[in-house]
Specification:
By secondary structure, the protein is of the alpha/beta class. It has four helices and eight strands, in the order ββαββαβαβαββ.
Length: 173
């Protein structure tokens, strides 16, 4: 949320540049006259530009202003596209059907705008044959070539071989 603006008695300047409730500039007036003008209109005096010389204060309904700011921030969050990363794990001996399921999941994530991290996990004797896992990653790239591009790809690091795919420019929603 945005920082709180000074209102009414919280304003510390001796005089302010006053803007009326309809947006018209009234001019530079002493603070007491500006507060009286706001009370007369049954509204608040809000310091909108505290660093200006003299500070700018506007006569407005501060509660309504805060509500509109929060609502605008909520709408902006709703429209914001989530660009997270999803992770999928495979093993060198992953069966064809399970592989197809993982690729289908990855395709769904990629078309939704997520990037996908594939990890091939090796156990015990599988570490002696890392080319099996790397071939599996090559097969993933081949299957998803129409919707994804390879962002990064590591060889064998510890027990994992990792690859990150991101959606192609025209493939997402």
């Amino acid at each position: 949320m945005a920082e709180r603006l000074a209102t009414n008695q919280e304003i510390r300047a001796k005089e302010v540049r006053l803007i009326g409730p309809t947006g018209d500039q009234i001019g530079v007036v002493p603070l007491k006259i500006a507060i009286d003008a706001a009370r007369e209109a049954d509204l608040d005096l809000v310091e909108v530009a505290p660093n200006a010389k003299p500070p700018v204060a506007k006569v407005m309904d501060y509660g309504k202003y805060q509500y509109e700011q929060e609502r605008a921030a909520r709408e902006a969050r709703k429209k914001q596209k989530s660009t997270g990363q999803k992770a999928l794990r495979l093993r060198p001996k992953t069966d064809d059907h399970d592989f197809d399921t993982k690729v289908r999941q990855a395709r769904k994530f990629l078309t939704s705008g997520y990037s996908v991290r594939f990890q091939v996990m090796f156990r015990m004797r599988e570490l002696r044959r890392p080319e099996m896992g790397l071939a599996l990653l090559d097969k993933v790239v081949e299957e998803l070539d129409d919707v994804a591009q390879v962002d990064s790809r590591t060889g064998l690091q510890g027990r994992f071989a990792t690859m990150v795919l991101s959606p192609k420019a025209g493939a997402g929603s």
